């Protein structure tokens, strides 16, 4: 079991930014006595509780399921509640998530993501809603497995921080949003694939993705958004081709 | 964090209630090893653009008759062109191998009732097709077949 | 300057109950507009961390509504209001079915029907599950489904600091826009509180940092009673140190709980769980673990004593199929791979049975003010909640509160806006004075820590009259010291220090009600185990405790329990 042994002093170089006081973000260094089993988040909370209460950061569950605590640690997007300090040396740089506008310190503007998230219509679309009395849909374990992996996204946005296309093309829907749209496209209960495929071919097009695979490299939940995006490309093309043959209801 | 991303990266349509600092990426975002490989992968696009221009030159030469054609073939023997064509071949192999590696991941679990074959089968088919087409083209341009 | 937002219904909290209420509200009336005001983006709500499952009768199975009702009432140690519990079991199946229609990826049997698993205190397996991340899937399904309704307007990262009551009727809330620090007034003809519990009053809890009892404190200060606050559920299998939850499903799938001698003490010794062993109710298992540790059969670690949860005999295949998240959590947070080693576990604070006093409609005694989910105490869980009942509870009573709030809003009128605005501005002044208040001698982390220690000592799994009295005695001066807090962050933009201060104030109020109610209940019932009074005393204590805020201090009262079908009997398994 993880032991609480010797404390180790580490220097945390943390991005600070207060729009009322600072023109641009700057960094501030803190010396933190770290317990061996600590995660990066524990050090940040120590800084806030004991050294500098003016540091703002987001966190909640501390068990890697709420997605609040994504930040760039030594240049790599990480969930700070899950990232062990044992992976790092004497100096740890903590910066807000890359590719997002910064509101304050380590807190980034999330509404751009929320817009892309909603844009893919992430809900079950059916022609005729089923009443509760009619019971559940039948869905085999195999049908569940077809989309299950893509439903595991905790919306931590690390994939957006890692993606070179997100860094350059503001309209790109991005890994998590596309993975979520794909999750619904692959759900046997959903009938909205055509609608979503049209969105996938539209302004934020999935075809902006050029196989960097960085999203899947950083995903803490093994969602593999790169797989979702590239699967979506094929399905979007098939959907486009069949739209000439099969009449579609709007 | 040093380099700026696109100033509009991940910016919502509706502006928020406070001023934000523009989006940035870490110093090593574009230079870290995986990203370098990816940028090289994308950069091969330039090679294909040039290959396309060379193809246009070939088509033009075909229309120009035997002397123009012979001059073209002689120019292809020059060191510059040899290096270019070797580069094009390496690019094609690099991109092909990377693409083939990602290919199984890019298959949806199901399209209607159809499921994709396992990755090993997909790889076998892709490499067989690549190899087969290469052999056929070599035979055709080598004058061996048909 | 206060920004004003007008809607028909205002929902505080965007978790399972809040989202379900919002959906129910807009479905109840096509013209209604709902404000969803949450201090975090909804997918961060703590519903997300629930793991095990959600209970409901499965049509065509060997289960029945009566069995579910009986299990729930018995599990509550007969303190549940049986009419509310009956409504709950009746609605449960439809709610989980609706959630399935909305995309929730319930785990399935081979024939495509929804699978169920055994759970603590349930006589028949009726817990629907989604691998071991049911709360995550539930929350995300609800949130994503709610996005189709443009009439649900979200105000994310807005922290509610006060409930507005005018002429005895609830008219809205006052909140801080966390991002800009601006004060906002959300006017609505009905308000639903769905802000969760208050596990962060304790040092070791499965709860995330946002569980600070905000809604409970808001209602309390507005004059609503807090019911049954002494009943805190200690989940038997939390990780030592972090308190991270290891789901009951790990026992549902066949895991064993062992002491330092490798003994399955729930089987070999008599802890009242009978044949159910590891699947006994949570309060009994937590007590058994504490007694084992006290008897010297616990193991010692840097964060105190612990016992073991052994999953090795399940095998890697079953663990990866049914409990993959458990494996990940154990490896990441305690360095143990449950396929090869038993997991260290101990009881940790998990859920509050008590909360804002509501009736079967989710209504508080203040007209226009409703509550649902863990924030509320209906009461359907009485003195102890059965695992997998609370997620369904969020849906059932979230939906009910949503519908009732809409019905009330249609018949209600607006309050005196000038009066309400002036109240909001006063509130804004209070927050401004608190923000970056450099003068003061007390440090926030110190007060928080001392509060948590008091609560741990006084209101643990086992309580002694003396320690509960001491907790009460320790909390009052802490509130005084809280008034002398020093705050450093003067910025208005995303100031989390002032939020933490407000949350601490909420926690102190809630903690006080817990301690006083606990000290007053001189019996042992459900999760409240008092060493000085080890037996249940129906003659004197078969009632709900009620805590009311008065300027002079908390006032204790009581409320009758509604008993319909099942007369209290000895609770033996």
How would you explain this protein's 3D organization?
The complex is a heterotrimer of chains A (about 250), B (about 150) and C (about 575). Chain A is an alpha+beta fold and about 250 residues long. Chain A contains nine helices and seven strands; from the N terminus they run ββαβββββαααααααα. Chain A has two domains: about 100 residues, Ubiquitin-like (UB roll) (Roll), CATH 3.10.20; about 130 residues, Orthogonal Bundle (Fumarate Reductase Iron-sulfur Protein, Chain B, domain 2). Chain A is about 35% helix and about 15% strand. Chain B has two domains: about 80 residues, Fumarate reductase/succinate dehydrogenase, transmembrane subunit (3 helical TM bundles of succinate and fumarate reductases); about 40 residues, no CATH class. In chain B, strands 1-2 form a two-stranded antiparallel ribbon. Chain B starts with a strand and ends in a 5-residue tail after the last helix. With about 575 residues, chain C is of the alpha/beta class. Chain C is built from 16 helices and 24 strands. In chain C, α13 runs antiparallel to α14. Classes of the chains: A alpha+beta (about 250), B mainly alpha (about 150), C alpha/beta (about 575). At the B-C interface, loops of B face loops of C.
């Amino acid at each position: 079991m993880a032991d609480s042994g010797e404390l180790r002093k580490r220097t945390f170089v943390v991005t600070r930014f207060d729009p009322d006081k600072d023109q641009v973000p700057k960094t501030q260094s803190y010396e933190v006595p770290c317990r061996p089993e600590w995660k990066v988040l524990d050090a940040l909370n120590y800084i806030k509780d004991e050294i500098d209460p003016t540091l703002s950061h987001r966190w909640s569950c501390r068990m890697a399921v709420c997605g609040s605590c994504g930040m760039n640690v030594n240049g790599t997007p990480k969930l700070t509640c899950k990232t062990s300090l044992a992976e790092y040396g004497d100096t740890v740089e903590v910066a807000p998530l890359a590719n997002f506008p910064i509101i304050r310190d380590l807190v980034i503007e999330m509404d751009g993501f929320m817009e892309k998230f909603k844009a893919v219509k992430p809900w079950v679309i059916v022609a005729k809603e089923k009443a509760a009395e009619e019971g559940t849909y039948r869905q085999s374990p195999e049908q569940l497995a077809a989309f299950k992996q893509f439903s595991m996204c905790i919306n931590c946005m690390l994939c957006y921080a890692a993606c070179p296309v997100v860094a350059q093309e503001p309209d790109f829907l991005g890994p998590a949003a596309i993975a979520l749209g794909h999750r619904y496209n692959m759900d046997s209960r959903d009938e909205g694939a055509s609608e979503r495929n049209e969105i996938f071919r539209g302004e934020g097009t999935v075809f902006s993705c050029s196989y960097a695979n960085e999203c899947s490299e950083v995903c803490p939940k093994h969602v593999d958004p790169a797989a979702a995006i590239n699967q979506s490309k094929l399905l979007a093309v098939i959907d486009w081709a069949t739209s000439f043959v099969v009449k579609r209801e709007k | 964090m040093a380099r700026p991303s696109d100033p509009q990266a991940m910016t919502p349509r509706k502006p928020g209630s406070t001023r934000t600092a523009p989006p940035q990426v870490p110093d090593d975002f574009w230079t870290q090893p995986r990203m370098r490989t990816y940028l090289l992968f994308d950069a091969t696009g330039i090679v294909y653009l040039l290959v396309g221009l060379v193809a246009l030159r070939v088509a033009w030469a075909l229309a120009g008759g035997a002397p123009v054609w012979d001059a073209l073939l002689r120019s292809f023997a020059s060191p510059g062109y040899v290096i270019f064509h070797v580069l094009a071949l390496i690019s094609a192999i690099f991109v092909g191998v990377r693409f083939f590696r990602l290919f199984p991941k890019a298959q949806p679990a199901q399209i209607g009732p159809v499921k994709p074959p396992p990755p090993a089968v997909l790889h076998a088919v892709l490499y067989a097709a690549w190899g087969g087409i290469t052999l056929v083209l070599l035979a055709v341009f080598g004058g061996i077949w048909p | 300057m206060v920004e004003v937002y007008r809607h028909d219904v205002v929902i505080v909290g965007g978790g399972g109950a809040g989202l379900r209420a919002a959906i129910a509200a807009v479905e109840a009336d096509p013209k209604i507009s709902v404000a969803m005001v949450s201090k975090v983006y909804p997918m961060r709500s703590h519903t997300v961390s629930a793991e095990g499952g959600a209970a409901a009768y499965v049509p065509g199975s060997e289960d029945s509504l009566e069995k579910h009702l009986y299990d729930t009432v018995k599990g509550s140690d007969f303190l549940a209001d049986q009419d509310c519990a009956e409504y709950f079991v009746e609605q449960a199946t439809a709610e989980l079915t609706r959630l399935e229609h909305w995309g929730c990826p319930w785990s399935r049997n081979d024939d495509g029907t929804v699978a169920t698993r055994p759970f603590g205190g349930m006589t028949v397996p009726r817990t629907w599950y989604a691998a071991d991340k049911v709360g995550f899937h539930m929350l995300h399904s609800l949130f994503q489904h709610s996005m189709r309704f443009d009439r649900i307007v979200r105000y994310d990262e807005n922290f509610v600091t006060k409930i507005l009551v005018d002429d005895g009727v609830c008219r809205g809330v006052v909140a801080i826009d966390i991002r800009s620090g601006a004060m906002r007034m959300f006017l609505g003809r009905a308000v639903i509180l769905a802000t969760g519990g208050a596990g962060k009053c304790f040092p070791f809890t499965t709860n995330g940092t946002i569980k600070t009892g905000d809604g409970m404190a808001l209602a309390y200060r507005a004059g609503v009673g807090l019911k049954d606050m002494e009943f805190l559920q200690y989940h038997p299998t939390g990780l030592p140190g972090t308190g991270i939850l290891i789901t009951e499903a790990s026992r549902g799938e066949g895991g064993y709980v062992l002491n330092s001698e490798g003994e399955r003490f729930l089987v070999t010794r008599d802890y009242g769980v009978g044949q159910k062993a590891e699947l006994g109710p949570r309060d009994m298992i937590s007590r058994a673990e504490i007694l084992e540790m006290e008897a010297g059969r616990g193991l010692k670690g840097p964060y105190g004593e612990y016992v073991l949860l052994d999953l090795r005999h399940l095998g890697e295949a079953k663990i990866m199929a049914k409990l993959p998240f458990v494996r990940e959590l154990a490896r990441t947070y305690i360095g143990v791979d449950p396929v090869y080693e038993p997991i260290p576990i101990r009881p940790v604070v998990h859920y509050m049975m008590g909360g804002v006093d509501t009736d079967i409609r989710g209504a508080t005694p203040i007209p226009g003010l409703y509550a649902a989910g863990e924030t509320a105490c209906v009461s359907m869980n009485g003195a102890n909640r059965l695992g997998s009942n609370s997620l369904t509870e969020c849906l059932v009573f979230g939906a009910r509160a949503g519908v009732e709030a809409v019905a009330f809003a249609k018949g209600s009128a607006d309050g005196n806006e000038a009066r309400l605005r002036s109240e909001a501005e006063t509130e804004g002044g209070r927050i401004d004075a608190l923000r970056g208040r450099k003068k003061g001698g007390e440090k926030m982390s110190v007060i928080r820590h001392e509060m948590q220690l008091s609560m741990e000592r006084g209101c643990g799994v086992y309580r002694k009259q003396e320690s509960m009295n001491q907790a009460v005695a320790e909390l009052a001066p802490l509130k005084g010291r809280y008034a002398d807090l020093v705050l450093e962050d003067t910025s208005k933009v995303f100031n989390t220090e002032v939020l933490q201060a407000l949350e601490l104030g909420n926690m102190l109020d809630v903690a006080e009600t817990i301690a006083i109610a606990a000290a007053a209940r001189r019996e042992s019932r459900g999760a409240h185990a008092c060493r000085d009074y080890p037996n249940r005393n129906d003659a004197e204590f078969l009632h709900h405790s009620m805590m009311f805020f008065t300027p002079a201090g908390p006032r204790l009262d009581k409320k009758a329990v509604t008993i319909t079908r099942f007369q209290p009997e000895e609770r033996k398994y």
